[in-house]
Amino acid sequence: MHTHDLIRELREANGSKIVLVVADGLGGLPLTPGGKTELETAVRPNLDAAARDGVVGLSVPVLPGITPGSGPGHLGLFGYDPLEHRIGRGILEALGIGFAVGPNDVCIRGNFCTLDAEGKISDRRAGRPTTERCIEVVNKLRSITVPGVEVFVEPVKEHRFVLVFRGDGLGDAVNDTDPQAVGVPPLAPNGNDAASRRTAEVVSQFIAKASAVLKTESPTNGLTLRGFAKQPKIATMQELYGLRSAAIAVYPMYKGLARLVGMDVLDAGQTLNDQVERLAKVWGDYDFFFLHYKYTDSTGEDGNFPAKVQMIEKFDAAIPAMRALKPDVFIVTGDHSTPSKMKSHSWHPVPTLLVADTCRTDAVTEFSESSCLFGGLGRFEAKHLMLLAMAHAGRLGKYGA
Amino acid sequence: MHTHDLIRELREANGSKIVLVVADGLGGLPLTPGGKTELETAVRPNLDAAARDGVVGLSVPVLPGITPGSGPGHLGLFGYDPLEHRIGRGILEALGIGFAVGPNDVCIRGNFCTLDAEGKISDRRAGRPTTERCIEVVNKLRSITVPGVEVFVEPVKEHRFVLVFRGDGLGDAVNDTDPQAVGVPPLAPNGNDAASRRTAEVVSQFIAKASAVLKTESPTNGLTLRGFAKQPKIATMQELYGLRSAAIAVYPMYKGLARLVGMDVLDAGQTLNDQVERLAKVWGDYDFFFLHYKYTDSTGEDGNFPAKVQMIEKFDAAIPAMRALKPDVFIVTGDHSTPSKMKSHSWHPVPTLLVADTCRTDAVTEFSESSCLFGGLGRFEAKHLMLLAMAHAGRLGKYGA
Q1: How many CB atoms lie within 10 A of CB A363?
Q2: Chain B: nearest CA to A25, how far in angstroms?
Q3: Contact in structure between B29 and B342 (CB atoms under 8 Å)
Q4: How many degrees, rounded to 5, is the angle at CA A386 between CA A381 and CA A390?
Q5: B19, B329 Cβ separation under 8 angstroms
Q6: Would an 8 Å CB–CB cutoff place B343 in contact with chain A?
Q7: What is the pTM of this model?
Q8: Which residue of A has its CA nearest to B30?
Q9: In chain B, pLDDT over 90 holds for what percent of residues?
Q10: ipTM value for the complex
């Protein structure tokens, strides 16, 4: 029996409120063996207090050793098996720039490249144009039309752009045109089924017209496409859990991921304080709140240990205002670890705390990687966190008599 | 590969003996955060000694956050995936009153209700009749016959009764006739496949005759039916593990669950001492013994913390007599937690201990929720406990060369 069928069968509505706070890339590593992680270094009285009041543990985002991107990392936290529900690269790219993806859209990541006189790729990133230049070239491509579909071209950064085809009956089983090599021409798009052949045909037309436009734009005189993807078919949080769900996130990617599972995406302002204010204002309107904090990840990606420590301390300071709303279930976790030492996402389990009246409190008095190892939640798969949230919220009935 | 196929392939017979003692609803919660659970409060020298001699851990009955009923809780402990093998409500109701369910039986939970002059339900529980009255009305229904099948009507309690149709080719995919509402008449039974349409036809005949009998019995002048269920097709413990298995349980529900997996259900007397005496008497006749203790659950359900503590202490006192029989594998666990604080079953992991010569003993010296967190068995799914039991009994050969 699929866990989601079980949830649909057992779920109950009771007016309780769940707050899931995701500090992106929360988990870290010590810079030297035996040292302290970013979280352990931070002064974090409020996270420690929550750890004392509740129960802690370590979340495994996907599987031991598997480093997730933001997509799988968040899907897991929302209770969707990240190995079962895949979000294609094109979709993530589109979500990342805040493009409102629809059910009939095929989203594609595009790269400008430089083609030589024979049409072979000489630079896969077209000499890394400035983002201003990217916008300029994209604007020229926007004049292209393809009969029967809507075409959207959106700049991302440097040589990167997003291409979206909107229309009935478009499939996404189309190969990348990027050969991932120089000295060869871009590949032709081919569809793997009838609907995807239709997409390939549309894409071919677009590429032909784009080639004409770009001809005189050297070094950005060519393009490659990859990650053809439609939105995955996924039950909404409302359908699955019966929760009226709201996302309070500042960055487009996380708003997009929340929209994908049917959350209402609220105006979150620009700062954590804005987000907490929004949370308080809409408290009566929803059952489930997803609050996303970005800077624990971005400072980790930068390899800036002290900055990540500082961002954790800033995050810590916002905790009391959230708890003051008295959520029935209050959860703090991350979608993955982002150790400054690695300057990247990692697979390491993520410190997690849960506060609720029905907690079997543990002896842990601090919120850190090393203390969570001894917490009552143990080590669990991220996809099971929502089961615990629902249970502690009194929203899951008994299975079997 | 299904775990059960693996077991069948690897299992070996060696005359060793396994005792599985289930203290129903064993796990608990502190009444106040940071306090002690029922088990932690109890004086339990013998459980602690067993914890010291063996290895402990925490059993997750189904999945994190999922609260099991007795059926799934015990199936898991017997090594059957509770999400794969479902026991219908009608079956559980029949097992609960000690009805000897057979393979051709469709079991149904019945409720007496009150119908108004138009045949609409005005009280779904018929004013909660006394159990004596329930027995009286059930006795009148026992005169009803339906050609081609045997009919059994058994009183349960107040407005509840069990209805069983025994006959070849009866299916159980029949809708509840209980509309779960007042002001509407009971629904007609409809079958979802040929065999279930046959059942629906039989049930319709029964209802017509019952209506005539009940007409003058207001307020118990109607009935609704739900949870149509046949016995699940399930391998016996003998077939699966090659274990001659015996159940020593006092309450009908647990005898019934044991019968479902093919255990011999022995006369267990009325008390824990009776049960232990029975265990000693039949020691030579079986390989596997399931001993069930109810009162840790019932006191938890009552929300009576001190009574649950007392029942744990009583349970503790019976441990030495069981261990004196020198089982090769001695296990104490629960089918789920029943915290007095919640007055209900819960999803919290269950303290578990296992004593055998092959234990990798841990540093844990007490048997409690908090100490089991640090035990050598870690946190495991209940359905894997029998694998450990078989392994420690020397009854599982090597997988692969």
Answers
A1: 13
A2: 24
A3: yes
A4: 140
A5: yes
A6: no
A7: 0.92
A8: A360
A9: 94
A10: 0.91
